[in-house]
Amino acid sequence: MRVISGKARGHRLKPPQGMDVRPTSDRVKESIFNIIQNYIIDSTVVDLFAGTGNLGIESLSRGAQRAYFVDQSRKSVETIKYNLEKTRLISSAEIISSDISSGIKRIAHKKVQADLIFMDPPYGKGLINSTLSLIVSTNLLKPSGLIVVEHDKNDEEILVDTEELTCIRKNNYGNTSISFYQLREETTK
């Protein structure tokens, strides 16, 4: 696991400890960033279920202005901090050690609106829809922003569309799928 591009390019990231963390592979990460490259420069990024901080760190390396990392695991928070220090990106980051609901509310309370939100929840735990709903209800996503959700290809919980969100793209990589969401135009008015 490494930073693929940008000012921290080539830095190896500390791998996850234990079986709770399943980092995004370099191949999938590179594909994601090819798709979202126009959202990154000077953006505000939120990395939910951050694990190692892999996606948020890649965003900072490629020119994001600020990144918020949320994870409730103490080991993950320590790993994220280590990886941010190693890549010298810590000054552009804030790590929130909390469950996802409280973390989203803390960021939203600061009036932050994200250009990009990454979600990589544990597979099969039923966390996708509730997290997407909370993102919408707290107004965490900018009207022009994008949510990138990594999930199991066969996860039946994944939304296609809701009243507020529309799935604009879905890519499969083996057993992993990446779904991309935007706010519906009616929601942004």
TrEMBL record:
Residues 1-24 are annotated as: Disordered. PROSITE patterns: N6_MTASE. Pfam families: Cons_hypoth95. CDD domains: AdoMet_MTases (cd02440). InterPro entries: DNA_methylase_N6_adenine_CS (IPR002052), RNA_MeTrfase_RsmD (IPR004398), SAM-dependent_MTases_sf (IPR029063). Keywords: Methyltransferase, Transferase. The keyword Membrane does not apply. The keyword Lyase does not apply. NCBIfam families: 16S rRNA (guanine(966)-N(2))-methyltransferase RsmD. This is 16S rRNA (Guanine(966)-N(2))-methyltransferase RsmD. It comes from Alkaliphilus hydrothermalis. The lineage of its organism: Bacteria, Bacillati, Bacillota, Clostridia, Peptostreptococcales.
